[in-house]
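Record CPNE9 protein, 525 aa.
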Amino acid sequence: TPGSSPRNLLDMDTFSKSDPVVVLFMQVSGSSEWKEFGRTEVIDNTLNPDFVRKFVLDYYFEEKQNLRFDVPPGSHSAFFGVQDFLGQAFVALGEVIGSQRGRLERPLTGVPGKRCGTILLLAEELSNCRDIVTMQLCANKLDKKDFFGKSDPFLVFYRSNEDGTFTICHKTEVVKNTLNPVWQPFTIPVRALCNGDYDRTVKIDVYDWDRDGSHDFIGEFATSYRELSRAQSQFTVYEVLNPRKKCKKKKYVNSGTVTLLSFSVESEFTFVDYIRGGTQLNFTVAIDFTASNGLPSQPTSLHYASPYQLSAYALALKAVGEIIQDYDSDKLFPAYGFGAKVPPDGKISHQFPLNNNVENPSCAGIEGVLESYLQSLRTVQLYGPTNFAPVINQVAGTAAQVTDGSQYHVLLIITDGVISDMLQTKEAIVTASSLPMSIIIVGVGPAEFEAMEELDGDEVRLSSRGRYAERDIVQFVPFRDYVDDSGNQVLSMARLAKDVLAEIPEQLLSYMKTRDIKPRRADPE
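=>
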């Protein structure tokens, strides 16, 4: 929810202060078109307005969400002339979220020759009921349903919907041959249990399990999240009732009881919680300089950059880098090449710095990485083989130095082909999976990339010499799947970034969770 507060605005009214308003425009993804999203209230007669009205936006880490804030003078009409304009600011939503404490101050520009003041943007995440509940239940004296033995009871939980219907949201395990079962504790998001409405009915059915699937209904009871939560201080006992038995039998009391033994609530942290708490994303690039890419001077080469069009390598680098850089405060990115003979002695290297500075391989901004990449193409000799392990181990070594959750590393490898050191690469990834890092692999060119799919680990968890990866940290995509038919490079880049970056927030969270690292509290205002 970005809020805004311009400061020291230009004074456009001759006899009083200006009456400003802020109009928010959002850029349509993959195009240059801007659409108005909303506007704040008008505040009369001030050059330092604090606006109350907030803008509620859907935030996607994997997309470049460009925003434009225009500050017309607020003269109460919907249209304003250029001469009345107080300034504007351009910013990506990721920049506001990635800035310290979610506060970003930007100069207003757009009135030639004049200082227009500044705009202060504040972003906070709307808490959408992120709590997770752990509870345990047991039952007593349930009805006997099986002819030869006791019952095999299990519970089914349903949340009620707005229209009065019920949706199943959890099933316990079956406890065999008992009328007094104790079920294992289980965990469920509050969202799933009651959609965030603490007083909404939660219905629980008790069944006797049958092998053929025709489970026998024992009875039911109803409660709510609020009622369940009282069990934090006391046991809660529910009567299990079977409506049909109740109608038939005058002396019917119940079909047993269910007791809530324990109930605890934990907050689930989000990616934004960690970013706001100061976690930095460190971006490293590794580019394939093997001979199979073709001579960079030839138009058929994957490294060929025409005056009109970036190469596939440069496009992939820009697409991913321009989003990640919003979360990295120093904007310095180590960049390496692999698979080339490097001057002065022509040795083959699998992790040479693109800026030719072994002591400090960092480049300033994505533009700096692109510059060094183009410079390297002119000075090294493309060769081989295609080895990934050295650069993965290099980044893993850096990631291993700070494991407290304040730093998280993202390595982007752009390659044209088949890996030569598959065994070493698998070993390197399995080792890296316990560190605060993720690996993105973008395959360019027409090669078959089956080996990459194995590294991706989405279907089968990656293993090496009997060791399994602790987390899935690799995301692979072939660049050709994202090339826009009409030749719109901006659209191709947006599509690519969306897919390769979509898993990063979850991968970061899985690292924090396995290490029990909580986000640092952002300093109070």
